[in-house]
Amino acid sequence: MSQSLSLRAGLVSILLLLAFIGAWWGATLPTQVDLGDMDPEYAAMMGLDTVQESDIPTPGDIGSAIWTHLSDPFYVEGSNDMGIGYQLAHSLWRVLAGFALAALVAVPLGFLIGMSPLMHKALDPYIQILKPISPLAWMPLALYIIQDASISSIFVIFICSIWPMMVNTAYGVASVRDDWLAVAKTLEVGPIKKAFKVILPAAAPTILTGMRISMGIAWLVIVAAEMLVGGTGIGYFIWNEWNNLDLANVIFAILLIGVVGMILDMIFGLLGKAVSYKEV
């Protein structure tokens, strides 16, 4: 039953893709221009054409752009002209660095907030004020203080990643069943051992959910951050190609961002399944 459903869903997905490509191809077909009573020879002399090509790239143009970029993804012809592999590597490095720093701060703080009602009440006002601030709002301040575009981008990723991880960790730790903690207390388990042997495994699915949300937000934010700071990265690549009016490359980069984001989400989905458990 499950295999049959997957097969049918796959067929529907393929049909939807073919329908979308067909509609796209139809929308980019050349159109006939009505020149009225103008003599065709005069129109040709004036540079007027009876057939107008679409400015939107065709599916074939996108296929050509994909082949061009993926056939040589790591070329370097100057600081402003690098292959898509280098651009993607720069973006991933910034995302992973900011995400890792956020995890180092958010998970211990989340533990503290989840285990201590006092710290929860004391820190909650600051979290509620800082959490809604757009990560990009921090960018001017980061550029002024850090004075490095790449590190400022990492800082923005750190800021946007920290809140979902911290809140989910605190919730997961606070939601550990009382009877499990009572058993640990009865067995006279020490605080550190209790944190790693009882609380962490119990809260791990919720913590991974927060990390998954944080990674999704970080991948969204890095594109906008790199558009602002320039230099390298997939966001800068899109902005640069827009300035060159190369829409085929812009669409290729958008597709690439979607594919990479899906892979990152799948990785955290698998990690979440690995630490999940069923209560009996």
From TrEMBL:
It is a multi-pass membrane protein. The keyword Transmembrane helix applies. It comes from the Bacteria. It is found in: Cell inner membrane; Cell membrane. Keywords: Cell inner membrane, Cell membrane, Ion transport, Membrane, Transmembrane, Transmembrane helix, Transport. The chain crosses the membrane at residues 7-27, 92-114, 126-146, 152-171, 217-239, 251-271. InterPro entries: MetI-like (IPR000515), MetI-like_sf (IPR035906), NtrB (IPR005889). Coiled coil: none annotated. Residues 88-268 form the ABC transmembrane type-1 domain. The keyword Transport applies. Belongs to the binding-protein-dependent transport system permease family. PANTHER family: ALKANE SULFONATE ABC TRANSPORTER-RELATED, MEMBRANE SUBUNIT, NITRATE IMPORT PERMEASE PROTEIN NRTB. This is Nitrate ABC transporter permease. It comes from Guyparkeria halophila. The lineage of its organism: Bacteria, Pseudomonadati, Pseudomonadota, Gammaproteobacteria, Chromatiales.
